[in-house]
Amino acid sequence: MELDREQLLTDCVDFTQRLIQTPSMPGEEEQIAELVTAEMRRLGFDEVWLDE
Length: 52
Fold this sequence. Notes:
Helix content is 63%, strand content 0%. It is mainly alpha-helical.
């Protein structure tokens, strides 16, 4: 159980770092949207889509 919590914390920190490092200026959010979409799919969300 403790290992699961430690892994979850590590995964959250890693994802947050990737979010911060990814450029996302107003009107240019495609990279960040793709990052979030990929993470949601990795986590097993039933439906994931991007607004056009």
